[in-house]
Amino acid sequence: MTMLMRTDPFRDLDRVFEQLTGTASRPTVMHVDAERDGDWFNVHFDLPGVDPDSIELTVERNVLQVKAQRQRTSKDGVETVISERPMGLFSRQLFLADTLDTDRLEASYDNGVLELRIPVSEKAKPRKISVGSGNSGRKQINA
């Protein structure tokens, strides 16, 4: 089973520009791991410090989109000395294979990690097909 991820060749250039200017021209990317575990496809997104209520998860056809927001809290009389952690909107799109059942997708958020569990669809699971012999033993295969 394969899953295609949208890549952005300009992401590193944008990141350097944002660090130099202190501006965010586009949503910050979130890091992701994906794995197949038997009949499940698991995807883990790093989103430390994100309020779970800010996470927006949508699936349209086979495109999974995750958006989340992390905001810096400011206090009166407190001066920021170092500010390196990315803030603002985080976004990621994944193109999922047709072999995944996105109608039964499960999502949870714990310790800064958004975990998605997507079952492999029944039609994509391996199955045994019996083979008959001769004309009398022919069996029709409905796939």
Protein described:
This is SHSP domain-containing protein. Pfam families: HSP20 (PF00011). InterPro entries: A-crystallin/Hsp20_dom, HSP20-like_chaperone, Small_HSP. Belongs to the small heat shock protein (HSP20) family. With 143 residues, the chain is mainly beta. It has one domain (4-72, 85-121): Immunoglobulin-like. It has one helix and nine strands, in the order βαββββββββ. The strands form two sheets. Strands 1, 2, 5, 6 and 7 form a five-stranded mixed β-sheet that branches. β5 (56-60) and β6 form a beta hairpin. The protein starts with a strand and ends in a 24-residue tail after the last strand. Mean pLDDT is 81; it is low at 1-7.
Brief digest:
The protein has 143 residues and is mostly beta strands.
Radius of gyration: 22 Å
What's the CATH architecture? Sandwich
**Runs with pLDDT <50, length 5+?**
1-7
CATH third-tier fold name: Immunoglobulin-like
Q: Provide the domain count.
A: 1
Q: What is the overall number of helices?
A: 1
